[in-house]
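Internal tracking record. Fields below are filled automatically when a chain is submitted to the structure queue. Please do not edit lines marked as system-generated. If the sequence contains nonstandard residues, flag them in the REMARKS field before resubmitting.
Queue: standard
Priority: normal
Entity type: single polypeptide chain
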Amino acid sequence: MVARTAAQALVDALEKQGVDRVFCVPGESYLAVLDALRDSAIDTVVARQEGGAAMMAEADAKLTGRPGVVFVTRGPGATNASSGVHVAQQDSTPLVLFAGQVERAARGRDAFQELDFPAFYGGMAKFVAEVSDGGRIPAVVADAFHAALADRPGPTVVALPEDMLADPCDMPAPPRIEPADETPDAVAMRECDRLLNAAQRPFVIVGGSTWNATAAASLATFAETAGVPVACAFRRQQLFVHEHPHYAGDVGIGMNPALRHAIEETDLLLLLGTRFSEIPSQSYQLPKAGTPVVHVHADTGEPGRVHPNVLGIHARPLPFLAASKAHGKRAAYIQGLHNAYLEWSKLPHPAPGALTMSHVMQVLREALEPDAILTNGAGNYSGWLHRFHRFRRFGTQVAPTSGSMGYGLPAAIAAKLRHPTSTVVCFAGDGCFQMTGQELATAVQADAAVVILVVDNGMYGTIRMHQERNFPGRVHATDIANPDFAALAEAHGAHGERVQTNAEFAAAFARARAANKPALLHLKVDPEAITPTATLSGLRAGRG
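SYSTEM-GENERATED OUTPUT FOLLOWS
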């Protein structure tokens, strides 16, 4: 009888972990795994570039709470994938990258496409291993999944020497790894409740990746019982229903000044799940010195690491919320903050041009169902989405807190495959889309009927904004010449349309949704409308 190979044992181990989909770019260094996947019920999604494949896996993990899985080949494949691994590291997303490696006898000789994985990924991944003995594959898979899920989740990397995959392996697949949901310390919880009850203007900011739908629902109950307003950290807006009367807004780029003032004036700041890093803390200017901070995080090393606190609690959101007995009213305070959010997100919003993002957002607000999923990469265009879309359900925002360009399309593909009956809308700038636009072919091949909105202003808008502010009158290297994105979509077999006026958008969007295949709308917007609050001419005049 032929022994089970390490490659087959690897696939068995993935099945045991509940993996039902992997993303990859094929490579000769792990052909044995591809062969084993052929006989598995695991769905294999073939991407066009390893960075896109890793971003798809990372987005899938955001949606499931389980580690996303990506396979790439050695050398260039593994280095390309690092863009998605970096997203997972910054966003605290569980991810397992399996990468081919040169044969064991060739290691250390700078062989063809050889890579030193610990050196390359050591500062980015929580766990890096190179499997030298195929019999250890099940144990290494268990270690990789455990590290990806434990404490602050993140990426792990497993290198697979090509010849090792043919080794015999008789070790059984490891049991399914589950993250620990420890009950928070009772003494700490009593102190937290005391501080919340005593505060006159408490403020709660939620974020991080250790949430699920149950925790999000519990958060609403906690806000009502404790009598506290809730804001969401940068690109974590799906954690709290925006129409809930306790919602105060999002703490990110271009924050509502009234919201910032409330955080500056709070007499108790509760950080729940979030690290409260550079973007939400406004370059570490918030909270103000002397503000009492209670920091609740799944990783014991986070509370107090960046922001001084009066109380640190080691807990994931759900156990913390279940243990809290805080209570309060503060109706006028909370209503004032919610009213400020409603005013800040009111549409229409003035903007120059025949086609405005204000109008686009108004159409989407009226047309999209609560379970519609919105994705984006990085760029000023995303500010319209974050400010004006009202998220109404957990799991409907997939966006990189790392600020990675090119993320929106791979994320949208993963979201549509995970939730095929939900409308999935990808926002991408013209520069952002061209980072991973080749994954449109992946969407077509995988029958992922996403709707892509390419916001074309002919430049790298965010960089131009900073350039206009810091080097006025010296524009350089921020203009881009773009293709006809609608024609490009048609060439891929997708639906494509060009939209140039407000009057055209609603009907074009309806046709895109009805196309039953990937669809792209090429939105030609006025470059003058650089952000919801600034124009290019205003920046040049020193008013932005």
